[in-house]
């Protein structure tokens, strides 16, 4: 069983002559415990192109010490919320750690593998480095006995693994060997304030901020392409009011790509809301590309939009079944227990459970497909080297305002069309179009927020509310259709048919309430969404 935690530490380079200083005089530190020594042996795994190392991800199997097992370390920002690399200031980088039992030496646990599939994109894993570390640990305690932090004095010997080791065979590598010494100050239950307080004492003892973010990075040296910042993507500056339109789009797309990659593991591991969040990021990406398509090569945008539509549809199949299932379960639980209700519950569960299972199986297949990995490559390529037309150099503030106005106008038109639509299927279809246009406006307004501030954020919030309300209405319509089909089955007992009628009446009531709530929300936001919204 895998476990997770957050590692907050700073690393320091020291030479062999350095003496570990006493840290008992640091603010909050009452005493330094007895040092203990352990010998740690670790084998690091990566692709032949060092894909994980290039993104500041480390995957190792380590024996010795109290935490023997498989360790996966993923960037997680810094303890003060910034993205400063190690050694640049007093902020200590955070890394998310996922642990798994030792298992087999060359078999990466599935749960850890799920966290890196979106980065490996079909590439295999093999041993790349073996480290032997003789570690002396000095625990630091507060007055009340709380274990604040550990100072680890590490003497490291590394060996690059090549040849048979790289192909998954034995671990007797014949590559480059190195030796060095380093210190690590890692928080246990202490505050990040300990780091700047310890800085002077460690520097006086001869320590300097580490030049490498990890032991693996130092062992690989120039063999690994280490990127900045620590999330593994090129730095994307927040756009300002004078930024070109292409910079506004790039910043928004970069955020959505981060979301897709961040929630990919959760989808693979069936974590709650992971599919919903990942699909939302896919939709935002597609919306931004659609809204700002005139700034870029038409071919590139069309290809990405088509592939994002495909991925959104794949993610949507299990998610939509899950939403309707949860909705009907709540309403079926409101009914008095009995054989008829039990039969209806069984039929609904069988229908929606089958849709969910088949959709999830298909989705898991897609997430391992070459097509999905190619889409991730194309998104990052578009982010890093966008095919910008001359129009992309126009004012981002003016372009964003123009597109928000265009999306708002489209929403106003669809609202008017829904008001005039005939009751029934035509009206439902028209309201569904309003929902889609509200979603489009929301996404465009979100992208405009960095250059238009609170006004754009208010528009996005208003559009989101309309989208959410009409989403409830749409879910009721879908539930009505399902219940109508199941309730029309031949030879249904009268009691069972009556349960279906009761459930349909409940959905019709909820749909009417949602439409009424939508009309109130529209009136409330009408002035905000008139001409000249920005």
What would you give as the CATH superfamily of the largest domain? CHAD domain
For the record, what CATH class of the largest domain applies?
A: Mainly Alpha
- The helicity comes to 40-55%
Query: End-to-end span in angstroms?
Result: 52 Å
Physical arrangement of strands within the biggest beta sheet = 1-6-5-4-3-7-8-9
- What is the C-alpha radius of gyration, as a whole number of Å? 28 Å
Bulk shape: globular
Q: Which architecture of the largest domain would the CATH scheme give at its second level?
A: Alpha solenoid
Number of beta strands? 10
The number of domains is 2
CATH topology title of the largest domain: CHAD domain
Structural class by sheet pairing and helices: alpha+beta
Number of helices: 13
Which stretches are low in confidence, meaning pLDDT under 50 for 5 or more residues running?
Answer: 78-90, 163-172, 225-232
What's the average pLDDT? Answer: 90
Largest sheet: 8 strands, antiparallel, barrel
Order of helices and strands: EEEHEEEHHEEEHEHHHHHHHHH
Beta-strand share of residues: 15-25%
